[in-house]
Specification:
Layout lengths: L2 E6 L4 H7 L8 E5 L3 H4 L5 H10 L3 H4 L1 E3 L2 E2 L3 H10 L12 H10 L21 E6 L10 E5 L9 E2 L4 H7 L10 H25 L4 E6 L1 H8 L3 H22 L3 E5 L3 E7 L2 E6 L3 E5 L9 H17 L1
Helix pairs in contact: 3-11, 8-9, 8-10, 9-10
Length: 308
């Protein structure tokens, strides 16, 4: 494999610089910013990963969040002019998100709502794993395992490996009333996804992989205890390092769609920090500054390697 990209959804630059986990600290690294529009707003994973994987600005792909897309652009543009006046947190309530959900969210966005090609659609023999807004999977020359939002279960292309894969990895755990159980499930499913990716790697020859771990985002939404957060980063750092040793790609890029910061709001103890995302790599040249540049960087990387 030439390039292995691993998304650590919600991984936060200042957390990581404080903790300096073993694998991460050996990489070149910097903050990864969203496009301008989101720098002063709270970005959602749906909007962020769609820009990262298509290279298209938000106003072009129109994926607002994992819960909805922009259907009424005029209304959204109007809303964006005054949204700074609406509090994001009012006595612990997510006022702005609530209003946005009332105004804009009709249906969770699907892969077919994203009209531009995703980066892996340009590279033969790709593995796509759990990237938000990629359900249902499309036929590609490779393997496409869809990410959130999905109805009951994730989708798999090619279909013939679905049964086996679902025996290993069950997908995102449901958050019920038992928070302790939910946190345990998050980690258990993460270990299972590592096992599933290793299994896939044994079955296919991949040239490129785009993998997203949603664990950090999910876990930090419900946990703000620093010792637990340190453990979380050590776990993803270790599982990433394990995958890298197993796959032995030429280069690795780790990136996040946003960071997290402490703020108690609705059912969360931490919320998204749009300017706190990370990018880290074995090769300094692969570090881009914002979401919009990522697609081109990967495309160029493959063009260059193919010329050699
Ligand atoms: Zn996210």
């Amino acid at each position: 494999m030439k390039l292995l990209v691993i998304g650590w959804d919600g991984a936060t630059f200042n957390h990581l610089e404080k903790i300096r986990p073993k694998f991460y600290r050996k990489l070149h690294r910097q903050v990864l910013l969203p496009e301008q529009f989101w720098q002063k707003r709270e970005i959602d994973s749906g909007a962020a990963w769609t820009t990262i994987t298509t290279g298209k600005p938000f106003f072009e792909h129109k994926i607002l969040s994992i819960s909805g897309k922009i259907e009424n652009e005029t209304l959204f543009k109007l809303f964006s002019k005054i949204d700074h006046l609406i509090p994001s947190n009012l006595f612990g309530r997510a006022v702005k998100l609530w209003l946005m959900s009332k105004l804009f969210y009709k249906n969770p966005p699907l892969s077919i709502d994203v009209k531009s090609p995703r980066i892996w659609e340009l590279i033969p023999n790709s593995l796509v794993w759990s990237v938000p807004v990629t359900h249902p999977p499309k036929p590609i020359h490779g393997v496409w395992v869809s990410g959130i939002p999905y109805p009951d279960s994730y989708g798999v292309y090619p279909k013939r490996i679905e049964r086996k894969l679902k025996r290993i990895f069950q997908g995102e755990p449901k958050r019920g009333n038992d928070l302790k159980k939910y946190k345990r499930d998050l980690f258990e499913q993460h270990f299972r996804e590592i096992e599933a990716i290793r299994w896939l790697y044994d079955q296919f020859e991949f040239n490129f992989a785009f993998i997203v771990f949603v664990l950090p985002d999910r876990f930090m939404h419900v946990e703000d205890n620093w010792d637990e957060i340190v453990k979380l980063y050590k776990v993803i750092d270790e599982s990433t390092s394990e995958l890298v040793k197993y796959i032995k790609p030429d280069e690795v890029v780790i990136l996040s769609d946003h960071g997290m910061r402490k703020e108690r709001r609705a059912k969360w103890v931490q919320i998204h920090d749009s300017r706190g995302g990370i990018i880290a790599s074995t090769d300094k040249k692969l570090l881009v500054k914002n979401h919009l540049e990522f697609f081109e960087m990967v495309k160029n990387y493959y063009q260059k390697v193919d010329e050699v």
